[in-house]
Write a structure and sequence with these properties.
The protein has 14 helices and 18 strands. The protein is α+β, with helices and mostly antiparallel strands. Helix 6 crosses helix 8.
């Protein structure tokens, strides 16, 4: 096919008013009468209304175009006019319509259920909503790479298939690997800890798998994590890096995706003030005091549930980092914070919670460097210490203080885009009940 077509976004640039242009794309909406035809055309960049008459197009072309269903692919030619009444503010007065591939009757119509749209996600990706989300997602992941590379971090890619648990054996996906059992990765962390003794500061954006038997709007079985790990770094410095990273991502989205946020009705003005404000850091114990004032009693030592995170964040309009969770509720690799003002042992760890009820978007910690305490924690979790001997080697040969965290990419996107369900933050969601399409 020839390449003399222009994108819809480009024809709307200044200076094209009154020009003859050629566009190609898919029919987003269509209506008409016996004399006039209105086609809203979409491509990857935008939508535009196209208007044609029987007199201008001729009998055969007009009737052929009028018979086309939505999602038919077409090429059009016409004169561009600015019209504030038209979708997108411009209108193309057609002189030619060429069908490329006529579509059958499209199965997605108005007022379809969310599950129906997910059953047909391969087609629903064409919607303006999903188009906008995917563009924001591309900006977010691109910004993550730019943030870390501009600060001297190296991209490090971990294995997806692993022999060990890192976040608890109950959420492991088991895989038949030749004549043995292994697992889908829960996090890159254990391998990242090996790499920092070579590269010192590393990051990655990669898929992660958790077999959590949850059907909530905040959980996926397959999701993406943007993780970092750094040698010579304590967990409080890691918190500062996390704050800078999320602000960098927000700024990039505001720079490149304001039109997408508008389509998603995710007002950009709620994000703009976050760039210049300080984001609070509170302890787990302080969080429980806030919840107590709200008549929510949480036994010290228990992790915060979704309902408690949501209640806590009613007090804040910026992201908040909660530190020093009880050691007994944490993974084996998180060390104890000495001299903490708390009723019991706490870990050098943190979670970042997003406002507006979106909950945890980051989890991180300093990493324990003591072989004895790691071994005891593994035994307590019912793990075989000998399976982690390679990991303990990292403590035997020149161990140093190091920390890291992971950003839940879909949770971050859901918050930025103000999505009601995390399943719409990823192209093809995988959950407890969904493995198709």
């Amino acid at each position: 096919m020839d390449n003399d077509h222009t994108s819809i976004a480009d024809v709307k640039l200044p200076g094209n008013q009154g020009k003859e242009v050629r566009l190609r794309g898919w029919i987003y909406r269509t209506r008409g009468s016996n004399r006039m035809l209105f086609i809203v055309l979409r491509d990857s960049t935008d939508i535009i209304q196209c208007v044609g008459s029987r007199d201008d197009l001729g009998e055969v072309v007009f009737d052929t175009a009028r018979a086309l269903n939505i999602e038919s692919s077409i090429s059009v030619h016409g004169k561009l006019n600015q019209d504030s009444r038209a979708p997108g503010g411009y209108e193309l007065h057609l002189s030619a319509v060429e069908p490329v591939s006529p579509a059958e009757r499209f199965p997605i119509t108005k007022d379809q259920s969310e599950e129906f749209l997910r059953d047909n996600r391969h087609l629903w990706l064409r919607s303006r909503k999903m188009n906008a989300v995917l563009k924001v997602r591309s900006t977010v992941t691109g910004a993550i790479h730019d943030f870390f590379r501009s600060r001297g971090y190296y991209e490090f890619t971990p294995p997806i298939l692993t022999p060990n648990a890192a976040e608890g054996g109950s959420t492991l996906f088991e895989v038949k690997y030749y004549d043995r059992k292994i697992y889908m990765t829960q996090t890159w962390q254990l391998y990242a800890e090996a790499a920092i003794f070579s590269l010192e500061r590393i990051y990655d954006v990669s898929p992660t798998f958790r077999a959590e038997k949850s059907k909530t709007s905040r959980h996926l079985s397959e999701f993406w994590m943007a993780e970092m790990e750094a040698a010579w770094m304590g967990y409080r410095e890691a918190i500062e890096v996390a704050n800078q990273e999320i602000k960098f991502i927000i700024a990039r989205v505001l720079e490149r995706n304001r039109s997408e946020l508008e389509i998603l009705e995710a007002d950009a003005s709620r994000l703009e003030p976050l760039l210049s404000r300080e984001w609070p850091v509170i302890t787990y114990t302080e969080a429980l005091e806030i919840l107590k004032e709200k008549k929510m009693e949480v036994t010290w030592g228990k992790d915060l549930r979704t309902i408690e995170e949501e209640a806590l964040m009613e007090n804040f309009d910026t992201p908040v980092t909660v530190i020093q969770y009880p050691k007994e509720a944490m993974a084996f690799y998180k060390p104890v914070e000495e001299n903490a003002n708390a009723p019991g042992p706490v870990a050098k760890c943190f979670d970042m919670l997003a406002p507006e009820g979106y909950g945890e978007i980051i989890g991180g910690s300093e990493r324990d460097t003591d072989i004895s305490s790691i071994s005891k924690a593994l035994e307590k979790e019912g793990e075989k210490v000998e399976n982690y001997d390679w990991y303990l080697d990292l403590r035997r040969y020149g161990s140093v203080q190091h920390s890291g965290y992971g950003v839940g990419v879909e949770r971050l996107i859901a918050w930025i885009c103000k999505l009601e369900n995390i399943k719409d933050a990823i192209p093809f969601p995988r959950t407890l009940t969904r493995v198709t399409p």
